[in-house]
Amino acid sequence: MRGSGAYAGKYAAAVAGYRVGPDYLEAHRAFVAVGADEHGGRVLGFYSLVLAPPELDLLFVADEAQGRGIGRLLVAHMQSEARAAGLDRVKVVSHLPAEGFYHRAGAVRIGTVLANPPAVPWDRPEFEFRVSSE
Questions:
Q1: pLDDT, tens digit, for every residue of 78-96?
Q2: What span, in angstroms and rounded, lies between the C-alpha atoms of 52 and 42?
Q3: Which residue numbers delimit the N-acetyltransferase domain (predicted)?
Q4: 92, 126 in Cβ contact below 8 A?
């Protein structure tokens, strides 16, 4: 997460103190995409789904794995997990560079989360995935 190019430079402060450790994993549903090709066994991406209130807390794809559809697969998996949990919507507060990805992945913009300095000194778009009952 901290090695992501999306959080380089001015965005580094947003994840500087963020820790995904045993306590986080115990409290949240986290899923990992692992490489099966030349990246065999390597983590290519992950996401975390919070059930109450429903939120996609984290979604990351390794820089070198972007553009291969892994983010879309993670979103589809998240929607399947949300559906199985009985959720009909999942919100996500987007990192600015990821705004286009969420829009292309089918999320609908529902608002703006105001800056929270010093960690996040910029406003962020808020999206919502609507989960079909299929």
A1: 999 999 999 999 999 998 8
A2: 30
A3: 23-127
A4: yes
